[in-house]
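Quick question, first post here. What does this chain look like in 3D?
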Amino acid sequence: MSNLNGKVALVTGGTGGIGAAICMKLAESGAKVATNYRNKEKAEAWQAEAKSKGFDIVIYQVDVTDYDGCVAMMKQIEADLGPVDILVNNAGITKDTTLRKMTRDKWDAVMDINLNGMYNVTQPLIEGMTSRGWGRIINISSINGQKGQMGQTNYSATKAGMHGFTMSLAQEVARKGVTVNTVSPGYIATDMVMAVPEEIREKIIAQIPAGRLGTPEEIAELVNFLASDAAGFTTGANYAMNGGQHMQ
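> Answer (accepted):
Ran it through. Tokens below.
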């Protein structure tokens, strides 16, 4: 188990699926964990459930598309927990349709949360991380950012863009003790995927050489490693976790 004692971690979009598993794992490793939310009632219920399992995760009502709101959140986290050492950019949405039918608002909404949101959260933290000489930034992308997916030009463009961001920022901060990496999950057994009709889900699983969906906990284990001191020499990398469905 990696030792993150005393480290402060921010996981965006941490109250569901993969994000929730990452929050729990980092907390289990000793980090003080914060996440943001948009739906107060849902987030407070999630926080209470996490607390019942022994995880004390701090929540902040902030929309990642609001730059000033993100800056204010960083200041509040620093006052409450300390400066952020570990950032996991996990917040993301889909609005799927073919490009021919895609309205501008569907394009803009996905760009705004998945890409602009990553900038809004990461940019205010960079100077602090580099001046302290230690930091971990982990961007949660997708298999579809690597291989594309019909009906997801907006989503795939943002997820490919995330890794371009990773590679460029990694070069800027490598000498300052800050690493930046991408994790690209395939099909994971989240509530969203499990809600897909079983016959469609079976067709998806048939395309995965491992013969099953991944679990949020498997993604969280990799993120936990990338957040640790042991991962100090890996930066600018894209870790595919997709059961062999797409290989490069």
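The chain has one domain: 8-236.
The mean pLDDT is 96.
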